[in-house]
Amino acid sequence: MDKVNIADLTEEQISFQLILHSGSARSKVIQALSEYRNENTEGADDLIKQAKQDLRAAHDIHFQMVKNEAGGTPTPLSLLLMHAEDHLMSTVTMKDLVQELLELFKSRNL
């Protein structure tokens, strides 16, 4: 995945990039549970790895925003950005929970 430079994007495009990457990760996390339920453990593991890559891309964008703000360039707050941040944080939580559940299921041969 190519690194996104937020300096090249509008405020709306930044928000949509966060939503894009976190949404892709969320879909893969949900699909991982489905794959595991269908006894495709390798497929589930691969989807979690892919979700982590998507989240890395979103976190990179987020880090650039934090870095800019720390450097004195404030981030304009909008409802769209709040939605994007909420989407990212809920996906991170979901990924962590599903990852732990899959490990629990594996340890108990479920």
UniProtKB/TrEMBL annotation:
This is PTS dihydroxyacetone transporter. Binds 1 Mg(2+) ion per trimer. Gene3D superfamilies: Phosphotransferase system, lactose/cellobiose-type IIA subunit. One of its GO terms (molecular function) is transferase activity. One of its GO terms (biological process) is phosphoenolpyruvate-dependent sugar phosphotransferase system. The active site is at H83 (tele-phosphohistidine intermediate). Mg(2+) binds at D86. Signal peptide: none annotated. Keywords: Magnesium, Metal-binding, Phosphotransferase system, Sugar transport, Transferase, Transport. Its cofactor is Mg(2+). The modification Phosphohistidine is found at H83. The keyword Cell membrane does not apply. InterPro entries: PTS_IIA_lac/cel, PTS_IIA_lac/cel_sf. It comes from Paenibacillus terrae.
